[in-house]
Amino acid sequence: MRLNPLTVKKLRRFRSIRRGYWSLILLGLFFVMSLCGELFVNNRALMVGYEGRWYFPVLRSGIYTGEDFGLPYKSEARYRELDALFAERGGGDFVIMPLVPYGPLEQDYVAGSYPPYPPSLERGHYLGTDNLARDVFARLFYGFRVAMLFSLAYVVISFAIGIVTGCAMGYFGGLTDLAGQRFMEIWSNIPFLYLVIIMRSLIPAGAGTTERIVTLLLIMCAFSWVGMAYLMRTATYREKAREYVDASRVLGAGTFRILFRHILPNTVSLVVTFVPFTAAAGITALTALDFLGFGLPPPTPSWGELLEQGTQRMDAPWIVTSTFAVMVIVLTLVAFVGEAVREAYDPRKFSTYK
Amino acid sequence: MRDYFIRRFLLIPPTLLGITILVFFIARAMPGGPLEQALMQAQMAQQMGGEMRMGQRTGQGSNITPRQREQLAALYGYDKPWYLAYAQWLGDVVRGDLGKSFRYQKPVWEMIGNCMPVSIYYGLVTLVLTYGVCIPLGIVKAIKHRTWMDSTSSVLVFAGYAVPGYVLGALLLLYFSFDLGWLPRRGFIGEEYEGIGLWQAIGDPAISAPGLLWSLVKHSILPLCCYMVGSFAVLTMLMKNSLMDNLAADYMRTAVGKGMDFRKAVVRHALRNSLIPIATGFGNNISLFLTGSFLIEKIFNINGFGLLGFNSVVDYDYPVVMGVLLLSSVLLLLGNILSDMLVALVDPRIRFT
Description:
heterodimer, A: mainly alpha, 3% strand, B: MetI-like fold, 0% strand
């Protein structure tokens, strides 16, 4: 692919802004890690060596029962117990567990005491557990994956709607533009968190988790496209007045060709600068909704839900503290990336006096 | 210019109409509204009552008679189609009546009025503190650009920008109220002072003014931190960037070149010009002022305007929702116009047509 020299210049400028560049790399690394998160945070073993054969429970879609490893039960093998057992027994059998040997939904009760349990290195709960004895690290980790995927989808969908509407308004102008503007003025003044809560009953009671998440996503996107539409409207207006549009019309290009081949490629680079900020807004809005109890359906791991638990249980400071720390890190990284992208597009040259 | 602003003002009523119609319609169209809630509650109450009185009646007693149903529907305005209900609501609003809360049976105006002082207090104090801190900080950061002071405060400013206020609130509550016990956990003011009006408090010798004030300050430290944290970053960076633009301007070089003291040149020339963008954002604060952030109000249990709106949404208390929505939309729209007016006022180069 041949890149536009202007784009190359912007890319180079972005790379030269070290804080933003490294933030992007770090963020990308976290995201990739979370996508294959089962290798790092999981209650299934990475590898089991039993009687000379190797098993890879993580990679298998089915389960290995306890009987497969010579244990007297038919449910899924409990790998942490197996690990302890093999270690005690000695010999060639072994279990390799992930770094954090707990799943996000798994409840790990300790007999005789009530959760939340404080962080403990020896039990492998590095950040403690929540009110239902689920590992906080695992929930934060998978919460990150959910939040990132959710906000990426949020960015894509709301930008798509915004770009199409904005382009149409800017290109056709006249009545379309006027009607669109009035509608957007109304739409953007509606407090969207309220409407999401009012619309919560749209989600059918018997719906599955994925269905609920998608409905929530669509409701949120229905309100978030307005900013992008305004932006694209102005950009399209500006481009439409240029000579190359007239030239291509004279050459016989149709509306669609002008819009998609000429105007869009020239305006769409503007969109990039808004991706990080919109992604951050998506994460924040989702967390707020989860915090209020109107977001992702339980037991989906989520930051907002952890925050809510933490504010209920102030005697378990590890919940709020670790959630806060993770949110600060991730959102600050996103903000750094956003700042760098903006600067790469619109460099400010300053002279300073000494 | 005058015509432009007149046109803007004239656009307010239709926009308000649009907003309220949309929300009214959506609230009505959603399944599981207040009527269904009330019916369900009534049914459950009857079932319980029936079971307690005698076991055999439960089967038939669980249904509400059509008459009762009609009464309930009339109470909630569900006895007529939504547009008629909306027209009725609108008629009442024009006469200055926002209706009665479904849940508390109190006039909506009274409920909004009750939380006004709290919201205005937080709005004003936040405004003063934010501008009071951000402008000097932005100036220092611009002059000390690319020094360690600038970079460290930048990281802090960005972290503050990135983290939502209520999340910070949860952490602050945890450490300063729960762990250390320095500051109170919830509410607007100490319990002993609750329900006392301002004038009453001043006139009553039994209430010590310093005590009251101290209680208020103690309760507001943490929420104020959270309110400030969001706008803080934006304003500081805006101040810094606009001052830096002006520091690089030719007239500054001229001023310094002809021998003017740098400090004097900054204060007299660059600073005055760089306050223009700061002034433009000012108008938007008018809505923040009152609506605040209901998440912060929720976490600190402050009965402000935002929390009222949120609670009424959750409780399907639609008259209150509509009242809050109407008021906050008016403020938002006025704020937008105000900020444009400020722009025109401080920068004569800008012309609106």
